[in-house]
Design goal:
The protein is of the alpha+beta class. It contains 17 helices and 24 strands. The longest helix has 18 residues. The chain is elongated. The termini are far apart.
């Protein structure tokens, strides 16, 4: 890895001249260099919250004697040569300014050895003159050791300010380390605090499985209680990670193994997606994006946390659409967010339904065990069989593929774990059609919306009983009819079917499926005048 001076025109285009003023920025530069050196083991030592000593040891490819002298010179780098190289760069650092800046504000030691060398070289500056450097041979293993001592000792005002808030500096250092640990799965990390082992993280063999353990070890162990995973791969980008619901402290996006600022376009897309698709206000996420550098500009600010897209409108639509397609249409059929459904309880359609019921069937007298609804109009008593109506209307929905009468209410997504292995996508489709908007994947049920008739039930108990019932009839010839029969029976008999739901069901049913030869099945008419005359005659 040859380190050389950049051309003057390239320096003018990429130089930032930023001054490192916090310990965590020093550690960030050192860790990025270790990762760029292809290390698979990194040890981090912090003394006095990083204000006295920051030491990073890696087992990377190392630096030769000639190149180690150039590491502390400005604009010497091995990452790029021409400005156009930025479009294909895959490393963290490329300006060649960090180490020269760090060495000017601290006692700086860099010890490195390559595989071909018999011994390493130690480059260090003098305690009284940070700008004067010496180099000596040093026995060490392959890799690099960077030791930064007495940070800002030549700038007393800044050092005294940091000493007063050193615990805050420790929080920033810890957050930075955790971010590197989360996005570098193939590296062993050892963190030492005042020479005592603070944390240890071993490289992951299977990222998809072991990443959960790494996240839960850093954050709360209960974070995965209510979560969703995502794994999208297409021509433009790749994305994997987790959404955590009922947890509102973590919002992290890694782009090409680099954490980006929460003011970035990606955060805007993801926040809007979760709020509009899942209807959740309390949520967190850890997502990993991989996008080719030809679509990005990472040279906006020196710490590379601000990323701009060359075509923001295209990426906004593309990422949002892919996320919707992943959760909405993958392997299942759902009927979400259609305009014909009503989300407002005070919608005019309710008033018309009630008016239709009163005009045709009269005023409600009473409800018999949530099974029959009795009403009175023009000396006649109507007795409706709610179970038969609800069962029949659901069968007609599947047969005619028409669920216009359903009134849908969006709810906060509920997630249930199901141990039933017999669920297929035809059953999911059936439940969606009759008003249970669910998504099923990896033994998880996510309930996003329900029809009016499924409101205010105990959903956890419902699904538990439903899937236990499903195991008993799975191989039955009339499985779908029996499922509808069971759901109708559960809602009418077990739950209190109120008069309001009954009016909506009956009025819509008779307007949509008013078959004369079927009427006597669903309700009975008692003429009070005839009954009274009959009793007088008798």
């Amino acid at each position: 890895m040859k380190i050389y001076l950049l051309p003057e025109d390239t320096i003018r285009k990429i130089s930032s001249g930023e001054f490192i003023n916090r310990p965590y920025k020093i550690l960030k530069e050192l860790l990025e260099n270790s990762i760029d050196a292809l290390s698979n083991e990194i040890k981090i030592y912090l003394f006095n919250f990083g204000l006295d000593i920051i030491k990073v040891i890696d087992n990377g490819i190392g630096i030769s004697k000639i190149d180690i002298l150039n590491t502390i010179k400005r604009h010497f780098t091995s990452k790029i040569y021409y400005f156009k190289d930025l479009s294909k760069i895959n490393t963290f650092g490329f300006r060649g300014e960090a180490l020269s800046c760090i060495s000017s504000i601290s006692n700086f030691n860099i010890i490195s050895k390559t595989k071909k060398q018999d011994y390493g070289w130690n480059l260090f500056n003098e305690e009284n003159n940070f700008l004067k450097f010496n180099i000596k041979p040093f026995l060490c293993n392959k890799g690099t050791i960077v030791l930064v001592k007495n940070i800002f000792s030549n700038i007393p005002i800044l050092r005294n300010k940091l000493l007063l808030q050193k615990y805050n500096e420790w929080l920033l250092l810890r957050k930075l380390i955790y971010n590197f640990i989360l996005c570098n799965h193939n590296i062993n990390f050892y963190i030492y605090k005042n020479n005592n082992l603070f944390r240890k993280y071993i490289s992951l063999n299977n990222v998809n499985k072991d990443i959960k353990l790494r996240i839960s070890s850093i954050y709360n162990k209960n974070i995965f209680v209510n979560c969703l995973s995502i794994n999208i791969k297409n021509f433009y980008f790749c994305c994997y990670g987790y959404f955590f619901f009922d947890y509102n402290t973590i919002k992290i996006i890694f782009l090409n193994k680099r954490i980006i600022s929460n003011k970035n376009l990606l955060y805007f897309i993801i926040n809007n997606f979760v709020e509009n698709f899942f209807f959740y206000k309390k949520y967190s996420y850890i997502l990993y994006f991989n996008i080719s550098n030809i679509y990005l500009n990472i040279n906006i600010v020196p710490d590379k946390t601000e990323i701009s897209f060359l075509d923001s409108s295209f990426w906004l639509k593309k990422i949002y659409k892919e996320f919707c397609l992943y959760f909405r249409y993958k392997k299942i059929i759902t009927i979400l967010n259609k305009k014909k459904k009503y989300n407002n309880y005070d919608n005019i359609c309710y008033k018309t339904d009630i008016y239709y019921f009163i005009k045709k069937f009269g005023f409600i007298l009473y409800n018999i065990n949530s099974y029959y609804l009795c009403s009175y109009i023009k000396s006649k008593i109507f007795v409706f069989n709610l179970f038969r109506i609800f069962n029949y209307i659901n069968l007609m929905i599947l047969r005619k593929n028409d669920n216009n009468f359903l009134i849908i209410k969006n709810i906060n997504p509920l997630i249930f774990f199901v141990n039933c292995n017999l669920v297929n996508y035809n059953i999911i489709y059936l439940l969606n059609k009759i008003g249970l908007g669910i998504f099923y994947k990896n033994k998880k049920i996510i309930l996003r919306y329900v029809s009016l008739f499924f409101l205010n039930i105990k959903y956890k108990l419902f699904f538990k009983r439903f899937f236990s019932f499903l195991e008993n009839i799975y191989y039955d010839k009339y499985i779908y009819k029996k499922i509808i029969f069971w759901i109708s029976k559960y809602l009418i008999y077990i739950n209190n079917w109120n008069n309001y739901k009954s009016m909506i069901l009956i009025s819509n049913f008779y307007r949509l499926y008013n078959e004369k030869n079927k009427k006597n099945i669903f309700f009975y008419i008692f003429n009070l005048k005839k009954i009274f005359l009959y009793m007088l005659i008798k």
